[in-house]
Amino acid sequence: MNTSELDSLKSENQKLRNYISLVNAEIELSQRLYEIKQNFANSPDSECITVPILDRLFKIKLEKDVLENELKLMK
What we know:
It is a single chain. The chain has one domain (3-71). It contains 2 helices and no strands. It has helices at residues 3-39, 46-71. 1% of the residues are buried.
């Protein structure tokens, strides 16, 4: 295996690790969002709490989509 192949594998490995981290973050934030919605169902403050989480989830999904395309992962 030559240096360029090794570098390519390292890059792909790092992208996969990033993808796994994003999946884990998405799961954790989704669970937190569910808990917040359950605990603050009728609270006027719930939107202030949930909107930043929803924004972050949206950004995570965009990042995941980019990595899925780069890594040719199936949806």
